[in-house]
Amino acid sequence: MRSINLKYLLLLHAVQLLHCIDPELMASSKKMEMKKKVLILCGDYMEDYEVAVPFYALAALGITVHCAAPGKSPGDTYLTAVHEFLGYDLYSELPGHHFTVNADFPAADPASYDALIVPGGRSGEQLSIDAEAVSLVKAFASDLRRPLLLTCHSQLMLAAAGAMAGVRCTAFNSLRPVVELAGGTWVEPEPWTICVSHDHILTSLGWPAHAEILRQLLRAMGARVLGGRGQGVLFLCGDYVDDYEANVPFRALAGLGCRVEAACPTKRKGDACVTAIYDVGAASDEKRGHNFMVTIDWDDVHVDDYDCVVLPGGRSPELLVTHSKAVALVGEFAARGKLVASIDQGHLLLAAAGLLKGKRCASGVPMRVIASLAGAAVVEPEGAVADGNKLVTAASWPNLADFIAHLVELLGITVAF
């Protein structure tokens, strides 16, 4: 009898342990099973922002993002295109960043991905006559029926795949005849910031709509954004601000429900800051990028209206640091216990405001000596670093995913699938 009782007690203890341990194991297993994967179909002269923003924004949320293209291997690069209106009747096309492919196209099994993104630009023209690329788009549009994002000119791929019929679709205005000839229903891109959803197919005019694009793409992938309660984030900028370092976090945070603003002490609301492009390993090779718009007058900026200030790099910090009110504003954010975030040459403002003393700091080559002179305790040569919960620094734009991830966490935002 005692033996039976002992066996019963041991069995009961084992069941209790399973009840204590299994939920965590199952949650961990489920989390791994729910890891999302997104594929970006790349090509020469794809629009720079339209590949970079989803690549870094989604990676910041823990989503695996693969970039692949026919005829390219991991490590190969594509030249992107900057499409911007510069005072002519049609947009101008300028050379953008060299974007690196990180996945092998033949091995890209459509069924292993949760969404497909096809950036706009002229890349879609060549891809539209590539049988493998067209087959990939068709798989998402018609067979798998998983989220498919087409921006600017890449809606041509949907027509090439024979999957446009009956789809409500927007695009850059010159694509209207293509949409209608292919049997789609044209939706005017008014305002430019809209993203049109038709079942699992998402379309937009292009990069001006990235905040809404990210919101709808995450929703289509089954995500819930928690804690995005309109946190105020102010970007300080000026002419020759780094193209990626200003735009990518600006659009990413807006897509997660933050209220983002951009201010410059020498410009008014509605003015444009010209951006600069610096490719990796080409410190002296500066190219003109997109325009980055000022959204608020300097005199209307009040620290209490924001939770965070972001200082992008490029050459604009050289201008901002000569304006005492800009340096004072950064210092006031820190004094009020707000989150201060800087990337690359934005550290010059941190140094001028005395915010690096004793702090861990990630700094690229241009700012490494200056960070040390300003008293940074540890200067990391790459990556992104959070020192406590009030200072985030990153070395350069290749570290944008980690930089944005720190901002999202410290602003109290989570994305759950």
Relevant terms:
single chain; 417 residues; alpha/beta; Rossmann fold; six-stranded mixed β-sheet; disordered N terminus
The total domain count is 2
User: How do the strands of the widest beta sheet line up side by side?
Assistant: 2-1-5-6-10-9
Uncertain segments are 1-33
CATH architecture classification of the largest domain: 3-Layer(aba) Sandwich
CATH class of the largest domain: Alpha Beta
How far apart, in Å, are the first and last alpha carbons?
51 Å
What order do the helices and strands come in, and which of them pair?
Blueprint: H1 2-33, E1 37-41, H2 48-60, E2 64-68, E3 77-84, E4 92-100, E5 115-118, H3 123-127, H4 131-143, E6 148-151, H5 156-160, E7 168-169, H6 176-181, E8 185-186, E9 195-198, E10 201-204, H7 210-220, E11 224-226, E12 232-236, E13 241-242, H8 243-255, E14 259-263, E15 272-278, E16 286-293, E17 308-311, H9 316-320, H10 324-335, E18 339-343, H11 347-352, E19 360-362, H12 365-373, E20 378-380, E21 384-387, E22 391-394, H13 400-410, E23 414-416
Parallel strand pairs: 1-2, 1-5, 5-6, 6-10, 7-8, 12-14, 12-17, 13-15, 17-18, 18-22, 19-20
Antiparallel strand pairs: 3-4, 9-10, 11-23, 15-16, 21-22
